[in-house]
Specification:
By secondary structure, this protein is α+β, with helices and mostly antiparallel strands. The chain has five helices and eight strands, in the order E-E-H-H-H-E-E-E-H-E-H-E-E. It has one domain: Gcn5-related N-acetyltransferase (GNAT) (Aminopeptidase).
């Protein structure tokens, strides 16, 4: 299984997370709008821990978190994930995305999530992929439903009560 260090979609470039992305992650994780549904703005220590956890995931599994830029800029605008997550004792692979508020409502979440699903079902040969959102985050749930995910149940994950959605390989 080989994942690219970077890949592109119609409007985005995804860059494999590396240690040089600390400042980019800090920018995202100190933006109140970006972090509104992700537990609130993070401290420097929390950002360092998040970076370390996600770098370790790449080292263990060969895939994980990508920093996102627009095709016309090197500035980070969000991130995408395809990573293992423990859901009530079950090893699942989760996809997800996040964008700075000024990039919301443009279809970018659908675009990058479609690419992540392609890697999950194609490269990883997964039978299903999960995604989680806060129960009140209806816009994100709309994206997931549009992509073919179905609500499965609410779960406690990462210290929060989240709605778990699942999509099965077509």
């Amino acid at each position: 299984m080989t994942f690219p260090a970077s890949f592109g979609t119609a409007r985005l470039v995804a860059h494999r997370l590396d240690a040089s992305h600390y400042d980019d992650l800090r920018r995202l994780q100190t933006d109140a709008g970006y972090m509104a549904e992700l537990g609130g703005v993070r401290t420097e220590e929390q950002t360092r821990a998040y970076l370390a956890t996600n770098l370790d995931h790449w080292a263990q599994h060969g895939f994980g978190l990508w920093m996102l830029t627009g095709k016309d800029s090197a500035e980070p605008i969000g991130l995408a994930i395809l990573r293992h997550v423990d859901v009530a004792g079950a090893d699942e692979v989760e996809t997800g995305y996040g964008f700075l508020p000024e990039f919301w409502g443009r279809g970018l979440a659908t675009e990058i999530c479609t690419a992540c699903l392609g890697f999950g079902f194609g490269t990883l040969d997964l039978r299903s992929i999960v995604a989680v959102t806060p129960p009140r985050h209806h816009k994100s749930q709309h994206v997931l439903l549009k992509l073919g995910f179905a609500y499965e149940r609410d779960v406690d994950l990462r210290g929060a009560r989240l709605s778990l959605f699942r999509i099965h390989r077509p």
